[in-house]
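If your schedule permits, I should be very grateful for your opinion on a structural question. Kindly check, if you would, that the fold set down in the tokens agrees with what the sequence suggests. Thank you for your consideration; the sequence and its tokens are set out here:
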Amino acid sequence: MRPLALLPRPGRARRAVLLFAGVLTGGVFGLAWWVDRFGRHERVTDADVLVVLGARVLPGGVPSGALVARMEHAVALYRRGVAPWLLLSGGVGAHPPSEARVMRELAVAAGVPASACVLEEDSHSTEANARFSARVLCERGARRVVVVSDPYHLLRARQCFRREGLEVATSPAPIAGRMRGWDRAYWTVREAFALLLHPRLLWARAPGGR
């Protein structure tokens, strides 16, 4: 066996690649830890509106488990008096109707007045959720929002809504019993990659710099 001192040293390019891979891996898993810890905490406070982010609609307009859980949680917050109305955000995905329209059906079936449900049906991403929702909120003079989504989604969602100049609190929809640990880990790491690819989101601050 050759002594370690005699082994060929990796070239400069290879060292750079290894260093980059190490930084990237550490960055992803560090962000994943932050995403997970953030999503585990309830931050609800009184607000002007509850913003519920959409999730997949199944064939025949059937709501996915994520969509049902988010709406059940939002309805519970509405009944507590957290906010007087709901903004339901989500466009048409693989199967019609829009996520927002399906969420309104769930809300009305749970006893929320249709007049308290406003739809945003143009968005197809978290960034678009925030951008298009902000337009509706501005028209209605709403500034303080509580965003409802799955736990792993909330950090990026908050940052997107902050970039639109809104005061944002977050409230996680329960995932126990509908998502396996491996699935939660996958989506958490996926969110970390999304943040890493859009680093400007990480610097978004609440109005006033808080």
Notes: The mean pLDDT is 89. Residues 159 and 200 are 9 Å apart (CA to CA). The radius of gyration is 20 Å.
